[in-house]
Specification:
Strand order of the largest sheet: 2-1-3-4-5
Strand content: 5-15%
Number of strands: 5
Radius of gyration: 20 Å
Distance between the termini: 46 Å
Helix content: 55-70%
Order of helices and strands: HHHEHEHHEHEHEH
Largest sheet: 5 strands, parallel
Number of helices: 9
Structural class: alpha/beta
């Protein structure tokens, strides 16, 4: 079923029965959310060359033995872990594993650092521990304002690692703190949905280089 076939954007009559009214209301919320996500995801087309450039750069670093570190909060943490799992596991077909760590998933480190140094440092201190010159740090945020991600960007710079961010609309502090950014305009939830598509597009574009690199 297409968006047009759902009747999104049209006026519908209100059912008489109370249960039908509730069901219709819930359906409208669902369809409105889907409709709102479509243009945000479609806006990734405008970033196609940028995403491809990221893929070429990150894949080359991984093949050369560098590491990818990723971080985010909440839903963005889940997407960071999605990215790293595609690299240590596989995205599309068999190939060698590559080093990729989601910093939020180190639960003992996160809680220890948060307890001793404050939540703002939970990613930055891990970057200082793990990152080396030439590594890449990927930071995901819909707001671009999280203090722990800003601290992570500073730690990446100090370590000589390249930092890139996926954020919501510009301007935002994180976009100014990293080496490069892909910023998506839209409501927070829809931006996060688009970022998952971005992650998959990035992984798919990296696959040919990652496969060739593993055969050397």
């Amino acid at each position: 079923m297409t968006i047009e076939q759902t009747g999104i954007g049209t006026t519908e009559s209100t059912p008489v029965d109370g249960a039908d009214v509730s069901a219709a209301s819930s359906t409208r919320v669902v369809l409105d959310h889907i409709a709102a996500s479509v243009p945000v995801i479609a806006s990734l087309v405008d970033h196609g060359d940028h995403i491809a450039a990221w893929a070429d750069d990150i894949a080359a670093r991984l093949v050369a033995g560098r590491r990818l570190l990723a971080a985010g909060n909440g839903g963005s943490a889940a997407e960071a872990q999605h990215l790293t799992s595609e690299l240590t596991g596989r995205f599309d077909g068999d190939r060698p594993a590559y080093s990729a760590i989601s910093l939020h998933a180190e639960t003992s480190a996160v809680t220890a650092i948060g307890n001793d140094y404050g939540f703002e440092q939970v990613f930055a201190r891990q970057i200082r521990a793990h990152a080396r010159a030439g590594d890449v740090v990927v930071l995901l945020s819909t707001s671009g304002k999280s203090p722990n991600l800003l601290a992570a960007a500073a730690a990446a710079r100090d370590a000589g690692a390249r930092s890139v961010a996926m954020t919501g609309a510009l301007p935002n502090p994180l976009a100014s703190a990293v080496d490069d950014v892909i910023a998506i305009d839209g409501p927070s939830a829809n931006v996060q949905e688009a970022q998952l598509v971005l992650v998959h597009a990035l992984c798919r574009a990296m696959e040919p280089v990652l496969r060739r690199g593993g055969t050397r």
